[in-house]
Design a protein that fits this description.
alpha/beta, Aspartate Aminotransferase, domain 2, 7-stranded mixed beta sheet, 4-stranded antiparallel beta sheet, 15 helices, 14% strand, globular, binds 2-acetamido-2-deoxy-beta-D-glucopyranose, Aminotrans_V_PyrdxlP_BS
């Protein structure tokens, strides 16, 4: 998380010519302010995708896959550099949700154990996955802990719950950054807490959902100390839709994940199979090779630009977005902060002053501006805790956006306000 480079230097790397290269292929009239939903792929990433589809048409999917086998294995190497792990600790899936669900369902639970969700920012999909797994296992229902009123993780409460033998906590989950605001949880403090538990306690497994941070924040699994991490291609990495990944720390006590096929295990005799000892055991055989290759190209671009440069640029543009929308339109920014953790690129606003959230999104769309809404049920705990409106509007600029685009978005909001 430490910034290694002065801010001004990081920002100065995005010269007009560098930016125009990074924006190549983007429609000039369209302002994409929805990186938190899905970002447009860069031209090299799109080319990688299309080239492989063309190869599949020419020689067939299987032959095409063998031709690119070495490139496919490089995806894991690139990803391991991005999050500081080994390439044998990575499995690819069709989405981050699949990755998270895969991890959750592999947590062994008994009637006396449960899972602890550690933040108000828990995603609906993940909460459902926790509830379902605890229910199916006949375990104690999951325990949901919310952040403290000042936005920080409630580490005292988390520790108390883990130390309470009644709970027998098998795993803890944390959302690194929510979908409904710029909050970034200090994931490392949770890792440190788990590492400092008395040795008499069975250390819970730690699952981190990094789908809104990967590609915009420096995520280092070694520093964080998590056992699993799920992430996605389509948001801040600017990769294609349809790819997610799971980091599985080597040496975990879980030998067998919930689901296996012939990729993660080998059928060695009619009644026996042998499970792969690497993270491969969490992966399935089938998948889109074109998507995976493009995902690899997207990671390479991030490594090339530098994640700290990307983070600075996103912070700069989202700071400007929050500031101008607050000052010039008078809307209320709803982002919270975990202590001195920097905010992510997600800027959430209560917009009732100028119209309903869907109306504002629609009006911006008419002006070639993509933003999205964020509803209560997608982050229920946080919505209830902070009494959030039914829907907010979410602006999420990426490094490829410009100051000029921020100003255009603000000026479009001014028009909408005038008309309302
Ligand atoms: C705690 O849960 C684990 C499964 O996660 C189980 O093996 C163990 O027996 C449980 N311990 C107690 C004291 O119930
Ligand atoms: C964004 O704003 C915060 C304070 O609100 C500041 O600490 C940070 O340096 C700003 N980042 C950039 C890139 O301007
Ligand atoms: C929106 O984009 C389209 C296609 O690029 C363009 O023809 C149109 O003029 C734009 N509309 C506005 C309001 O900018």
């Amino acid at each position: 998380m430490m910034r290694t480079k002065p801010l001004a230097l990081a920002l100065s790397l995005f010269t007009p010519s560098k930016l125009s290269l990074l924006r190549s292929g983007l429609p000039p009239n369209h302002i994409h302010f929805n990186a938190a939903g899905a970002s447009p792929m860069s031209q090299p990433v799109l080319n990688t995708l299309i080239n492989h589809l063309n190869l599949e048409i020419q020689v067939g999917g299987y032959a095409a896959a063998s031709e690119v086998a070495s490139s496919t294995s490089k995806i894991y190497t690139s990803l391991s550099k991005l999050i500081s792990c080994s390439s044998s600790e990575l499995a690819l899936h069709d989405s981050s949700t699949t990755s998270f669900t895969h991890a959750i369902n592999s947590i062994p639970l008994t009637a006396t154990s449960t899972i602890l969700s550690c933040s108000s920012t828990e995603y609906a999909s993940n909460a459902i996955s926790l509830l379902k797994h605890c229910k199916s296992s006949g375990a104690i229902p999951p325990i949901f802990i919310t952040n403290k009123d000042d936005g920080t993780l409630d580490l005292e409460k988390i520790k108390e719950m883990i130390l309470d033998p009644k709970n027998n906590v098998s795993a803890v989950t944390l959302t690194h950054a929510p979908t409904n605001g710029g909050h970034v949880n200090n994931a490392q403090t949770l890792g440190s807490l788990l590492n400092s538990l008395p040795s008499s306690i069975n250390k819970p497994l730690y699952l981190l959902d990094a789908c809104q941070t990967i590609g915009q924040v420096d995520v280092n699994v070694e520093e964080i100390g998590c056992d699993f991490l799920a992430g996605t291609s389509r948001k801040w990495l600017r990769g294609p839709r349809g790819v997610g990944f799971l980091y599985v720390k080597s040496g975990l006590s879980i030998d067998e994940p919930a689901w296996l096929d012939l990729y993660g295990a080998k059928w060695i005799s009619p009644q026996n199979y042998e499970v792969d000892s690497t993270a491969k055991r969490y992966e399935f055989w089938e998948g889109s090779v074109a998507n995976k290759l493009a995902f690899g190209a997207a990671i390479d671009l991030v490594l090339d630009i530098g994640i700290d440069n990307i983070q600075s640029r996103i912070q700069y543009l989202s700071n400007l977005t929050r500031e101008l929308i607050t000052k010039e339109i008078g809307l209320i920014n709803k982002d919270t902060q975990d202590g001195d953790m920097p905010l992510s690129g997600i800027c959430s606003f209560e917009v009732s002053k100028i119209g309903s959230a869907p109306y504002v999104v629609e009006e911006l769309k008419k002006r070639n501006i993509s933003v999205s809404t964020s509803g209560r049920s997608s982050t229920l705990l946080d919505a209830e805790k902070r009494d959030l409106p039914e829907m907010m509007v979410r602006f999420s600029p990426h490094y490829f956006n410009t100051e000029e685009e921020v100003r255009k978005v603000v000026s479009a909001l001014k028009d909408i306000k005038k008309e309302s």
